[in-house]
Amino acid sequence: MERGGIAVSHSPDKLKAYLLVAEERRETYPGLEELRRALAAHGILCGVRDDVLWRMHEKCLCGRRVVVAEGSRPTMGQPGRLKAHIDISSMGTPRKLKDGRVDHKDLQHIHNVQIGQPLFERLPPEPGEPGTTVFGEAIAPPSPGDVPLRSGMGTKTSDENPNLLIAAVEGAVKIGDNGSIEVHAAKLVRGDVDYGTGNISFMGDLRITGTVRAGFEVTVGGDLFVGGSVEDAGIECGGNLEITGGAVGSNMGELVCGGSVKVHHLEGVRVKSRGDVLVVDDAVHSRIEAGGNVRARTIAGGSVIAGEGVRAVVVGATAETKTVLDMAGVYRLQLQRQETLRKMGHHAIELAAQKHAMYLLVRDGMDELGDLRPELGPELLNMRKKRTMLRVEHTRLAKEIERLERKLEDAPRPMIHAGHIYPNVVVRFGPLERTIEEEMDDVCVFADDDDIKIRPIER
């Protein structure tokens, strides 16, 4: 659009306006007001650059198109995104040690979470600022993208925040194929535990289809099933442990179990179980500690400490390998009871001494009005706190004695049942000990009064 030697135009997106003053206006160059009127006549209302108009007038710019007004572009908003409340960036990478080295056995493949623990939070998209054309028209900002918060198995949205995903169960976090966030109470590890998986720590139940290789560690809060074997590795689980194959080591591997253990065979392995230990085949040169019963086809070499009893087809070996069977369960309870009684007596003496010390402090610390001197107040307060702590501990010890006495009442009589015993097998029942000096078949070994007795098993 040209009028009076002044041409006004704009860009296709309406974000720029141009002025061009014809050459014939050089002698009568338009003033600022005339230039502004020309823009206004074209509808240019926003973003006019007065400084540019002034320079055009000052330099009498002719025959050249000049940008004299600019609109504003809309700003891009913040797209929706997921904020992780757990660190999954290191999953599958070796753990870095304090000295800067990395532990290639600890690849942090499993990230454990507790019930109610925040996992991911959806941050809604934030719209951008609208733009404006040189004509004063609004330009809507582009719609920012959004991201869904996909709740998978074992997760749920928080009651307080619908955009917050929390764990509904205790277990391991997994990102599903469709991007869903899941928590698995039971975890499956396909194949072996080796440098490909690293050490594994998991709060729930765990199934390993392969073998746990030597030098690696598996720590599980629930039950653990190993489809292969355990090779001189460290195993710890809060529930039951089942190993389809055997556990073989050089006395470096250890199986620690909060429940019961079932394993095909043992050789050179330490086993600690709160429950029973079942060895389907042979237990050779291994150290077994069980709160319940120990059963095996053969127990040769090493030692067994059982809380309730031992059953085996064969105990010892033809080479008369020293094998120790220790029925320590009841006797350990008795020792615990004696030690707890001793502590309780000590606390009773301390309580009496504390009470007497408080009496002396109050008696000797009174002023002429019968009130305790102010400077002794903090000391009396500390003495009362100590007395309260002693009373709490005294009550705890009394309850512990009751618990131990109930366990002693319910504890079965510890016995050893063996189909065949070889010489040099040592049996212990608390302070009593006896070494078997000749081969015997189908016998039951038990303690009676102050003696260890052996009698035939009645068929």
Structure description:
The protein is α/β, with parallel strands linked by helices. It has 5 domains: 2-70, no CATH class; 82-126 and 144-184, Beta Barrel (OB fold (Dihydrolipoamide Acetyltransferase, E2P)), CATH 2.40.50.100; 189-291, no CATH class; 342-407; 415-456. 20% of the residues lie in helices and 36% in strands. The protein is built from 4 helices and 37 strands. The strands form 6 sheets. The protein has a 22-stranded mixed beta sheet that branches. Strand 34 (425-429) and strand 35 (432-435) form a beta hairpin. Helix 3 packs antiparallel against helix 4. The N and C termini lie far apart (119 Å). 27% of the residues are buried. The model is unreliable at 91-95 and 101-109 (pLDDT under 50).
Count of distinct strands: 37
Shape descriptor reads: elongated
Structural class determined from secondary elements: alpha/beta
| Number of spatially distinct domains | 5
Strand content: 35-45%
Count of DSSP-assigned helices: 4
Low-confidence stretches: 91-95, 101-109
- The value of Rg in angstroms is 42 Å
- Report helical residue fraction: 10-25%
Largest sheet: 22 strands, mixed
How would you concisely characterize the structure shown here?
The chain has 459 residues and is of the alpha/beta class.
Give a quick set of tags describing it.
459 residues; alpha/beta; OB fold (Dihydrolipoamide Acetyltransferase, E2P); 22-stranded mixed beta sheet; 4 helices; 20% helix
